[in-house]
Design goal:
2 copies of one chain form a homodimer. By secondary structure, chain A is α+β, with helices and mostly antiparallel strands. Chain A contains 4 helices and 4 strands, in the order βααβαββα.
């Protein structure tokens, strides 16, 4: 099992802002996923990987591809109180799901 | 409501590593908290703040203080597959709880 967290790097977000957005995505993914998937993922120690894309379009295309492959994809829109405009797409969670299925969608994306 | 996520800065973790550790802390806090607290926090849009301390001792003292004040404090020990030694304390989640109660423990800590 694996949870992929994919962050836009073109917004100039600082490391604290990135961490908050990624945490938001991870929490949302856990709340929206099936209990069995969450339990299996937690049982393996919550494996996660943090990856990057360079544009919002790339992020949304990735989420569409994940959903087309039957994966849960949670796109986070920032409230915009700090650093970015309200509603800005900042990151996306894919999974938690079988690692192979997540890897098929995120293959080639570099680590953040 | 607020969830505070407090990160050690003395380990030299990169931004992706920090994001993964903070996400781990946030997910663990949500899973271990009372449903009513989680629901109230989610209903307000998952407010969170990412703060920093400079040593592991400071992080553990903060967690002890939070627990003494009746707050949930989840200390994350890294699996140590990358960047830090296995078992290293990397970050801590405090809450989600009433903002005033969280602020009382984390007052004075700088943003990450």
């Amino acid at each position: 099992m694996k949870l992929a967290l994919v962050v836009r790097t073109d917004l100039g977000m600082g490391r604290g802002k990135i961490a908050a957005q990624v945490a938001h995505a991870a929490v949302t993914a856990v709340l929206e996923s099936r209990d069995a998937d969450v339990a299996a993922w937690i049982g393996q120690g919550q494996p996660k990987v943090v990856l990057k894309v360079t544009t919002g379009q790339e992020l949304l295309a990735l989420a569409r591809q994940a959903r087309a492959d039957g994966l849960l994809a949670e796109v986070i829109h920032d409230a915009g109180r700090t650093q970015v405009e309200p509603g800005t797409v900042t990151c996306c969670a894919i999974g938690p799901a079988d690692s192979d299925r997540v890897d098929r969608v995120t293959a080639g994306l570099p680590l953040l």
